Write the structure tokens for this entry.
Amino acid sequence: MPHSADPTETQPARRPQRLSSDARRGELIEATLAVIAEEGLRAATLRKVAERAGVSNGLIRHHFLGKRQMILDAYAATVERMTAPGLAALARTDLTPRRRLAAFVRASLDPGLSEPTLFSTWAAFVALVHVDADFESIHRAGYRDYQAQFEPLIAAVLAEAGRTDAARPVADLAVQLNALIDGLWIESSLLARDFPEGTLIELALDGVARILNIDWED
Amino acid sequence: MPHSADPTETQPARRPQRLSSDARRGELIEATLAVIAEEGLRAATLRKVAERAGVSNGLIRHHFLGKRQMILDAYAATVERMTAPGLAALARTDLTPRRRLAAFVRASLDPGLSEPTLFSTWAAFVALVHVDADFESIHRAGYRDYQAQFEPLIAAVLAEAGRTDAARPVADLAVQLNALIDGLWIESSLLARDFPEGTLIELALDGVARILNIDWED
DNA sequence: GGCCTAACTATGCGGACGCATAACAACATG
DNA sequence: CATGTTGTTATGCGTCCGCATAGTTAGGCC
């Protein structure tokens, strides 16, 4: 491409774009997650994240206490991103318990949550849960209300089905169901098996029904 | 403690201990995994791993091509450590298929595999599976034969139970069972729920039986 | 419209990193 | 007992890291 001397092309965005602190923090967290997903947590340096976000590296210290705090915020954002769909389904009191459970399963295995990038960042973070107390508290906080809302739903589903047999505590059933759903999420994200669209959710719904000994149909 | 001028105490192991290359490599890999579990993959530097192993930092380059190769070897060792018990159970052709499956479940959730340190290292490594091609090939190689031996076992279990109904492909059942087992492993390792001894395996055996619609008893 | 707050750039410093290299020491071999 | 091989230590070099700091510019407010 000869003589493309257009200064607006060779030097785009000459002037720094001013954003609100919240907006800039969001963009920096997004850049952080992108770098971690593509090159690993090790590569998420201030310089690289700043370059990815299109800003100077010094700006990070202006919006965060430091690199560590930015990483922690990125982890919190990841937890929120992963749990929000499930929690939204659990909160849908307009549905019968059984339909709410099905909605929860579908939301938890939504294709949007099966992106390999999300898995990579998740794995990098949870590797530090037993290493760093701050990561642990973010982890615990993220899954605490999750379980608090999930177990009552299971109890409601069993009650709806007239299954009052307490052969197994509801807590145990919740553990099994969570394990199945989480395990399927990992298999689809990590092993990258070529599951046809919807197959993953089908397997989850089927497994949940078998463990609870219920039917999805009326 | 006054005047403890014993030179053998203040300067223990003055002389370097010579080991075979294999033995030294093993100790270095062990030190690498320990550092990763305690302080994260980021902290696994040549100097720190060497100090942990009680050797000089330069020795690592003598036994490995470099730090990267040592980390890769440590990952391979982790995969082997995680899959060996399950593979051993799968190979026990002296048992009936059903008992072999039960042995596989028990081996996969053995308390020795539920140590938090093992989970931390696993998570740190798999975070790089989608980032680094070498990590990916170790991952794929580790789980390839795993699945190749698992699916036939499921088919044999169904045949043994006289269940010839092919409502679901064996491959799908294998995915569900693997997801349940892996998910339970993660719940026990990550959430650190206080599962009483044996409870985890009970939940797994129960879930597997429900998904396959079989009984463990005769 | 002057001004002050805050978003932003630019640069340098001390430290830790991976790696190369040179010297040393133990062991096997003849 | 000389000698080559190799496990091992010690040290320095160049690079990149997080962070501090000084300087610059945009925008809200009375």
Summary: The CA atoms of residues 56 and 78 of chain B lie 24 Å apart. Residues 1-13 of chain B have pLDDT under 50 and may be disordered. Residues 15-16, 18, 45-47, 57-58, 61, 66-68 of chain B lie near DNA strand C (CB under 10 Å from a C1'). DSSP finds ten helices and no strands in chain B.
